[in-house]
Design brief:
Elements lengths: L4 H13 L4 H5 L8 H15 L3 H13 L1
Length: 66
Amino acid sequence: MARHAGEMISEITLAIVTKQGLSDLAGVIHPYPTQAEAIKKAADAYRRTLLTPRTKTLLKFLAKLS
């Protein structure tokens, strides 16, 4: 149980029922600020843990260019 659980449960339920993963959730545009945005940020944070050191270095380099 959480505040705004009703807002969060529908998105998570939809992802489970349609067999979508965290990458799919992270790719969805969400209105901000909402509880659903917090789910998206958590999915993004998880995906960042999957980056290899080489990929992290490349992304840092690209960020400096922009």
